[in-house]
Amino acid sequence: MPRSSRSLSLLRERTLPRDPRYLVYDHASPLDRPPFRRPIHPLAPFAWILLFAAALIAQNAIHAAASGSMDWYPVLSNQIGQDTVQTACSPQQAWDIAELFCRVCSTNQSVVAQLAPPYVASSTSDARAAAKRQCQCMPGYVLTGGASVLDSRSSCKACNATQTSSFERSFCLFCERPFVDGNGATTCLCDPGQYLMTRDAQGIPLTKALCKNCPKASYPSDDLSTCISCPDANMIPNYSSDTGYECLCNTTIGFSAQPVGNQCVNSTSLLSQSSQNTVDYPNAVGPSGLSAPIRNFPSDFFSEYLAYASNLCSSEWDEEACSLLANLCVLQMYNQKSAACKSYLDLALVRSPSKNSPIFERPVSLPWLFYKEQALSISAISPNLTVDLSKNSGQLSFVLATYNTDGTFAGFQALISQFDFCENGATLTSAFWREVGYNYVSKCSLSLRDITNTTTSTLFYDPYLLDDSGNLFPVPIRVHNLAENSDMGLDYTGNVFTRRFFLIDNISGVSNGTLQVIRFPTYIGLTIRKVDTAAGAIYSPILSILYAERSIQGTIAATDNSQYAMPKYTFQVTYNMSLVDFWRTMQILFALTTSLALVFGLYLARNWSRRSVASAAEAIDLYFLGQALIFMTGCLGSTFFWLLFSICCYWLIFYKAQTTLFLVLPINDMDLYNFNAVLITAIVTQTFFVVVKLWQQSQVDLFFFDWEKGKGVVASSAEDDSVKVVPVSIWRTIFMANQWNSLQCYRKVSMEFLLVWTYFFLDGLNIKYAATPQPNIRNLSPGARSPVLVFAIDALILLFFVAIQYTFRFLVYDRFYRDRLLQYMDLLSTANVSLIIFDEKCHGYYIHGRSVHPMADTDINELNENLRKEENDMVPARGLMDTDQQAFEIFVTASLRSTYDKIYSIVVGENSQIDPKLSGRLKHLSTLKASGRPKSASEKSVKAYQTINKFLCTFFDRNIKEYPYAIRDKSYFEKFLGAVPEVTQGSVFLNDTYGFSRVLMRGLEPALLTCYALIFIGVDISTGSVSAAAVVVYLLDLALCFLRRHVGERNIADKTILDWKFLV
Questions:
Q1: Most buried among 74, 391, 744, 861, using CB within 10 Å?
Q2: For residue 56, what are the CA distances in angstroms to 50, 59, 822?
Q3: Nearby residues of 1006 by Cβ (< 8 Å), 6 or more positions away
Q4: Which helix (H) or strand (E) is 248 found in, with range?
Q5: Residue whose C-alpha is closest to residue 463's, from 524, 402, 382, 522
Q6: Long-range own/partner contacts, residues 1055-1059 (CB < 8 A, 24 or more apart)
Q7: What is the pLDDT of residues 711-769, one digit of tens each?
Q8: 339-350 and 319-331 are packed helices; what angle lies between their axes, rounded to 10 degrees?
Q9: DSSP letter string over 958-994?
Q10: Quick check: 247 pLDDT over 50?
Q11: Rounded (10°) angle between helices 787-808 and 622-656
Q12: Which residues have C-beta within 8 Å of that of residue 871, sequence separation ≥ 6?
């Protein structure tokens, strides 16, 4: 084939229909992905056998249906090729397409063209032409006796020595210029530019072949049977004995001799090719992983087509050449100083604006690459589109106008999964990212080895959005490789928007036929912003792309997992809206709630001061400031939790329930920064408050005092006439202390139940995926989750199961089975032992356990008789002062507490003396551990214990006039705001059945559950794992319970002169 007839079709891949009226849905990815195969179910072999048989039948049916348009051949796996012809028969054989075997040509026959199975042609006509090539008579022989060489009656007969055969081997004829070769065969010769005519105008065979001149701008074929036209009518065939015919342009009429591509161009408009056919790769990375910029890379593609595209687009307004020029500019990364982009811009300046673009200004009959409008104004334009989530599954329809490398239009593609290289083929048609409001993120590593080995040619795309009228709205492109677009934020000031992009560039980096540099995207993002003032309206979507460049040097190993060979890729779809008004409101609400929390914390600290400080002069000191800090942290932690919970539930409800787009999730870094900052602050403050309160609980002052009287007197000995009172058993007190110790970690909520069911619902039932950033609450498809929605979903599930347990406890368990706190009060009354607790200097709790029976230290018969009397109301009420109220919140006078402390300090001081030296403490502990025996109390402590026991019994019997007390119910402010009553007239006892639970973990349970919920949510957000969050919270609960039980047990032992070994 002459050099001038080389066609750009070699660059074309299999194209889509070019008629823009047809919308072609091409789901193929730019990367050659492996097909998705479902695993074979082990219990269904017969179904698979039937399916396989059906597939074979369907395959034969498809081949049979296709036989009318293209011949089919049996295919061998080692013979498959693309756009190639492979030979299976020998040179002396021809493929018989009817009988499907290699036929041996008979005597005096030769193979005209050998095409063996499988034949893969670039067009149907080529395949049909190839199928007709077979055995025919050799030159100098003609067919006789039949219509075909396959006819058994036919044979090839030699012409006379001075004759030759016609081209179709049907008759013999003489030559004007005969030539006899070394084998004695005669052939006809003609002068250059002439072909051989063997029939006249009516098709009658001539007796002598005549040499005739070929028409203008054509040249004879190799066998002189016909004339071949040059690609351009302005070309002149030039003959050379070495190279044959070459079509050159006619220089006498102003054309350059060498054609550009297949066209002649005016010599005055020919683009200079010196230093114009190179490409720069400033971000190229070599195999070492280090940056290796490449400048002035000699590109075969630019050398071949830059001048052609530029000159043909300029002189002829050829649309495909202009599109090719645009592709070249795109491959130059829109560098306006490059030859391709400069040539394009020069043409765009002289072209008038298109009348078919009412919104944007673009040149007529020229591909649209650059916007003349500013980026900010472009991003503020809204397409004619109302986003209705109830229609079309709430999806946006994006369309890609596709162009081949040579500039030809390849049709339209629906944008579905072309950008998601991370998909494995299983969900190619789902395209979750197209769902309106779905903040989709897909991340993975690409294989540079697969990219370089892909056989897919480079395609170029112009993105559009299909609006409500069926029109195509152009989508701007922001290529981050441009210096103006280096900032990947949402501020488009100074950015440059463009219109065409590619996915994989495997053509510009080819030099001398070898791929040396390749481009591919490492980030593709689609940003869609909602119009602030209109529901359902959006601004123009912005497509952002960041390309990576890799220098290819040899083969990339399949085991190479470096950043060079396995670059990271992200595909992201982001929906956003202006949240300035929302966050302004939230700032006001945050400031108000924070102020209220701090004020309430100061109020609680002031109440503590009134309960704990003897005089006003001591009201404000460092200790007060420390207590104020503790109360304020507790108030802030709880307030922040409920504030975040309210905000996140607002987003969950209104985002998931919308039918017309009016709300999108906050995704800006600043928005999430504010959210994360408040969440972290809540976790820290609430955890601090809980830990401090648990420590304070384990340091309370408590005392068990026994109301039991001795059972008469006994003689000391036979020699001694003195008598002594029968001692009262201490084992009832020890038993009560043990039961109190068992209540240290008692709570209403079971953490095991809470965490197991929370994990089951969130992870097992995939409820956690209701937090994915898409507006369909019923869509539980796995995906990245929004931190805001994670908080709402996790908190709702946790609160749901907490509420279930509280409801069950209140309605069923505590009412019909047992209430451990009430049981403990009954047990104290049965044992005739009371418990007083001081958690602050002048504040505490009292459980009145004085028995209504004469004796509690008795046998089983008397105990049973006492209980029977109570059942029959034969005894007074158990409560203090002959009431039913046994538990009180007490506010005592400073003088009473001072008297109590004088005696109580002896008990505690003597019982908790420890060697100040570490070596002494270790020796003491090792001695006790080795002995295994309980430690005895000092005699002084025992006497002080007996003294304080008598003092408390006397006080509660109201036998000490200096220390009166009053009993009453709580007022509204005392019940709900913790107001402190006046104690100037004496101590005040307020009825409060469960008040003493505040010194147990149960009393701290709301704050503890809030802390656990915050930690659970924080771990889930940071790790993305519900199981990790559950494990962390469970281990934290075990640790806190262990410390609370251990330290509380030591405190009971120290405050009751009982060795800790009595507490089992």
A1: 744
A2: 10, 5, 78
A3: 638
A4: strand 244-249
A5: 402
A6: 1055/701, 1055/702, 1055/703, 1055/907, 1055/908, 1055/911, 1056/702, 1056/703, 1056/704, 1056/733, 1056/737, 1057/907, 1057/910, 1057/911, 1057/937, 1057/941, 1057/942, 1057/945, 1058/734, 1058/737, 1059/934, 1059/935, 1059/936
A7: 666 655 556 566 666 778 888 888 989 999 999 999 999 999 999 999 999 999 999 99
A8: 130
A9: T--TTS-EEEE---HHHHHS-PPPP-TTSEEEEE-TT
A10: yes
A11: 110
A12: none
Note the Cα 183 to chain centre separation in Å. 78
Q: How far apart are CA 744 and CA 740, in angstroms?
A: 7
* Alpha-carbon gap, residue 168 to 372, rounded angstroms: 63
Is the bond leading into 298 cis (omega within 30 degrees of zero)?
Answer: no
pLDDT at 1025 over 80: yes
258 three-state secondary structure: coil
**Residue for token digits 């001048």?**
307
CA-to-CA dists, residue 307 to 6, 233, 275, 314, 349, angstroms: 15, 20, 12, 10, 19
DSSP conformational letter for 139: T
Reply yes or no on whether the pLDDT at 796 is more than 90. yes
Which of 177 and 63 is assigned the larger pLDDT? 177
Other beta carbons within 10 Å of 518 = 23
**401: exposed, middle or buried (Cβ count in 10 Å: 0-12, 13-18, 19+):** buried
Both tokens of 521, joined, read 């995207």
The single-letter DSSP state of residue 21 is: T
pTM for the model stands at 0.68
Backbone φ and ψ for 121, nearest 5 degrees, come out as -105, 160
Contacts of 164 (CB under 8 A, 6+ apart): 139, 140, 172, 173, 175, 178, 185, 186, 187, 188, 209
Return the ∠ at Cα 636 (arms to 635 and 639), rounded to 5°.
85
- Cα(692)–Cα(688) distance, rounded to whole angstroms? 6
Angle of CA points 772, 775, 778, to nearest 5° = 75
The DSSP secondary-structure symbol of 11 reads G
Structure tokens at 971: 């007022």
CB atoms within 10 A of CB 888: 25
Q: Which of 329, 349, 347 is closest to 339 using CA atoms?
A: 329
For 43, how many CA atoms within 13 A lie in the half-sphere containing its CB? 0
**What are 952's two structure tokens?**
């408390």
Tell me the chain's radius of gyration from C-alpha atoms. 48
What does the alpha-carbon distance between residue 283 and residue 568 come to, in Å, rounded to a whole number?
A: 15
Taking alpha carbons only, the member of 213, 384, 297, 388 closest to residue 775 is: 388
